[in-house]
Fold this sequence. Notes:
This protein is of the alpha/beta class. The chain has helices at residues 15-21, 23-26, 37-57, 70-88, 101-112, 130-136, 159-168, 240-255, 257-275, 304-313, 333-337, 342-345, 359-379, 381-387, and strands spanning 3-4, 64-67, 92-96, 116-120, 141-145, 172-176, 195-199, 210-214, 281-283, 294-299, 316-317, 348-352. It has a seven-stranded mixed β-sheet with strand order 2-8-7-6-5-3-4, sandwiched between helices. Helix 4 (70-88) packs parallel to helix 5 and helix 10 (304-313) packs across helix 13. It starts with a strand and ends in an 8-residue tail after the last helix. Pyridoxal-5'-phosphate is lined by residues 69-71, 74, 100, 102, 147, 151, 176, 178-179, 199, 202, 210. Pyridoxal-5'-phosphate binds next to helix 4.
Amino acid sequence: MTIYADNAATTKMSRTAIDAMLPYFEHIYGNPSSLHTVGQNAAEALDEFRGTIAKTLGVTAQEIYFTSGGSESDNQAILTAARYGERKDKRHIISTAFEHHAVLHTLKKLEKQGYEIELLDVGPTGTITAEQVKNAIRFDTCLVTVMYANNEIGSVMPIAEIGKVCREHGVYFHTDAVQAVGHLPINIPEQNIDMLSLSAHKFHGPKGVGVLYVRRGIPVATLIEGGAQERGKRAGTENLAGIAGMTAALTEAVTNMEENNRKVQRLRDRLIEGLTKIPHSALNGDPVNRLPGNVHLCFEGIEGESLLLMLDEYGICASSGSACTSGSLDPSHVLLAIGRPHEIAHGSLRLSLSEENTDEDVDVMLEKIPEVVEYLRNMSPLWRDKVNGKKEFVL
Length: 395
Ligand SMILES: *Cc1c(COP(=O)(O)O)cnc(C)c1O
């Protein structure tokens, strides 16, 4: 039996999304740029999908750019603001210390090109306030980029309030909403979002396809040069099957959001309640403003990697944080940003649930995880020192 609890890394595709893709491999396989009927059928479908996605997000079709996913959308949004800033002589960018690497590494690159990057402190619960953003905005700020919800610890940012502050100050506001779209209600105009990134494979759609929303009037900078696709702003023959799957998955996720969230939140809260009973453990992220499926804890005295490997033996697929940092020995930048010491940050566990998880899954996890934590602690000389009082407990 496999218990998949790593939905923040990627999700299983829904049957609806798979079925929506198949015609675009078999029948409507044309290139939307071709003038013949096969091509024009593809172009019509592309228009329809763009319209559906725009409507779901409360925006217009002209503001939707199809991309290869969240990373590309983040890169292009930030580059767009940076090019604008260059023309206006504004090179100050505000972000947070716990963004996804698609944002942080893009900002690092800009820093080397002379931009000033200011990363706001996310505090012990891993959130920022609109007040912090307001205080950081300067005459030369060209962008505020703040993630909608954190992919590791699940905390949800006050996006509408941040959007309001940015609009009042005439500063572009981008949000990496990859973890939020399909899981939390989003209304781009009401939340004063200027640019938004989303990725299909985080809401049961296919991998390798996403959207960058850019509000009309903002001059979009090009990342990929070539043909005139996406109104000349993103070259490359459109991934029509992927876009079909993404559109179906998004529609399905938004339609079932309330019901799914009720279910997933209940499972999440059972897990949090049970696992925080483990001595010397701590919940990471905001306990209230939290993604419906996110459970993230630190256990003192263990290595997250060992925990994951042992859980895998029981068929439990979990993560220590983000898929991008696993494999490296550095502790998660997110856990360091919320002030967890290195030693504690190493003992982390993320369980990210979807509506496919069941109460039985939770029962198994609540049985196995405490057992494995105890087993690993008993093998650790450091843990023994703590138990014998030779070293202090941190948690
Ligand atoms: C997964 C993820 C990304 C990257 O999206 P890809 O489509 O895999 O490139 C970016 N930001 C966040 C918050 C994510 O969770």
